[in-house]
Amino acid sequence: MALNYIWIAFFLIGFVVALIRLVFFGDTEVFSHVMQGAFSDAKNGFEISLGLTGVLSLWLGFMKIGEKGGIINVLAKLIAPFFRKIFPEIPKDHPVYGTIMLNIAANMLGLDNAATPMGLKAMNEMQEFNTKKDTASNAQIMFLVLNTSGLTLIPTTIMVYRAQAGAADPTDIFLPILFATFFSTIIGFLTVAIIQKINIFNKTILLYLGSLTTIIIGLLFYLKSLSADTLGVVSNVLSNVILFSIIITFILAGLIKRINVFDAFVEGAKEGFGVAVKIIPNLIAILVGIGIFRTVGGLDLICDGLAWGFEKIGVDTDFVPALPTAIMKPLSGSGARGMMLDAMNTFGPDSFAGKLACIFQGSTDTTFYVLAVYFGSVGINKTRHAVACGLTADIAGIIAAILIAYLL
Fold it and tell me: What are the residue ranges of helices labelled H in 165-260?
């Protein structure tokens, strides 16, 4: 229900602010801009969904091959001891464990086109044993928050944008982003675990989290030892080699199992098309609401208010020019990307604000977009504590990004 109230708030705040701009500031074009923006955002939402159709069909087709070839079950068994502790609702050794694992791995490598279809498939599989179909289950909330916290090991696209903007060292935000996104993920996980009364001191949970932390630190030291040019090449090659290797592994497993690989792909692709159609109304709704809030200047009001408040209490405000990216990120990925590019263009890619905007962009994911797409794909409209936990992870990532930027 939280998402419902937030969505209504976007419209009401947008109307009030637009009315104030019309009556007190004589802005006769404000309502015209709002309506033009609403139609534009509705079109954008449909185009995004249309673009997802092809990607979903492609990846869910390969996922179906992997499922029938037994690879998903193998992955499920490898990660099952940990997932059984944090997803107690999911039946033992259920194939969804493997799908969740693939989704998280794709997110960590920055492979959005692969992560989203896998995430949607996982959400659909968890919906099968959700007793209240219109209400998010504990497992679905935990999974969603792990996605919205946005753990990313290699922020390739952000480094590319910095290179295009003329940054002296496009990779200098690599470490700060890794620390910020890792902190965001841990806080998001702990928040959900506490609310759902999951024992975070369980030996299995500590072992898996400790192993993940060790792997991340090891990879961090390796990638940090590379030159800027080499890092860009290695990160790009590594991500795509892993991705294509997964596809080939699925196909080979299907051949070994003697299944009709092509028919399995088509079967999965049909599922992807159906999921994409379900997403359209939810995505349009959330994008239009966010767009209205942005068009009337709601984001500017928040940033100006924060700047005034920090100045009054004597806090350094060098980070404030980068805040639009941080505030926009939970609402819109493309909007946040635009804010990041604007910060680099305005203040310079090597300025404090320019670098911090890039760290904000990489520290979390688009919470409301993920909510609309993932929950919308299975018809969930009662989100319970998903929004609160997702935003807690976002805030943790923002605070971590600011502190790390000052430290480094």
Answer: 174-195, 203-224, 228-256
Nearest to 191 by CA among 391, 400, 401, 402: 391
Contact (CB, 8 A) for 76 and 97: yes
In tens, the pLDDT along 283-332 reads 788 878 888 887 888 877 887 888 888 888 888 888 888 988 898 888 87
- Distance (Å, whole) CA 28 – CA 163: 41
Residue keyed to tokens 């792997």: 215
Dihedral sign from CA coordinates of 283, 281, 276, 91: positive
Give the C-alpha separation, 189 to 390, whole Å: 9
Closest CA to 365 of 318, 319, 398: 398
Long-range contacts of residues 15-23, Cβ cutoff 8 Å, at least 24 apart: 17/296, 17/297, 17/298, 17/301, 18/296, 21/296, 21/297
The three-state secondary structure class of 1 is coil
Torsion of CA 248, 249, 253, 255, to 10 degrees: 20
| Lookup: tokens for 237 | 């090659």
Nearest in space to 368 (alpha carbons), one of 401, 336, 322: 336
For residue 139, pLDDT beyond 60: yes
Concatenated DSSP letters of 72-112: HHHHHHHHHHHHHHH-TTSPTT-THHHHHHHHHHHHHTT-H
